[in-house]
Design a protein that fits this description.
By secondary structure, the chain is mostly helical. Helix content is about 35%, strand content about 0%.
Length: about 80
């Protein structure tokens, strides 16, 4: 298994490009939505979600954990907002 380090910028760049390329290949849904499900996660800051992703990745046996993926990372549409 190739060991990735935090300073391996080429790995992260290539990984991001691959993910973006895969997302751009998805077929766009043109139909009008019948319903909308809005999920509001209280206390889910970017750092909290990142920590969850790392922990899940480590428990799944991924080297450092950053490569891990939460279920919500696989959803086709995700948004964030900040309120004051």
């Amino acid at each position: 298994m190739h060991m990735f380090y935090f300073t391996d910028a080429d790995h992260w760049f290539t990984s991001a490009q691959d993910q973006l390329s895969n997302k751009l290949k998805l077929n766009r849904i043109e139909a009008q939505a019948k319903n909308l499900i809005k999920y509001i996660g209280d206390g889910m800051s970017v750092s909290t979600v990142t920590a969850s992703r790392i922990l899940k990745g480590q428990r799944d046996g991924v080297q450092f954990g950053e490569e891990g993926q939460l279920y919500m990372d696989t959803l086709p549409y995700v948004g964030t907002s900040k309120v004051s």
